[in-house]
Amino acid sequence: MLCLLLVFPFSICAQGTGNLKRQGDQAYASGQYRTALQYYRQGGLESSKDEEMQIKIGVCLYEINDVDGAAKIFQRLINEGKTNPAVFLHDAKCFQAKNQFDDAIGL
Description:
The chain is mainly α. The chain is 75% helix and 0% strand. It has seven helices and no strands. It has helices at residues 2-7, 9-29, 33-42, 51-63, 67-79, 85-97, 101-104. The radius of gyration is 17 Å and the shape is globular. The chain starts with a helix and ends with a helix. Residues 1-14 have low confidence and may be disordered.
């Protein structure tokens, strides 16, 4: 058994990550943002370069009231040239939550 773990550790981790992402996506879809974020973090998906995953993590942070953490993700995506409308919408929501209304409307 130890031999198998030494030879195939990456396949075991990959299966676990996929399952955690799937569970996180289910929790996200049902509005359980704290639970979804926990699954994404357990799966190591916070460092993912996937834009959709980063948006989901940002939304989770926003919804659990970590506005600063969410704003960092959305600002980074904007700086990288991501033009998904959801990024701009949620970035504006972060500014609004911090009473920075001029920044929220892009002045």
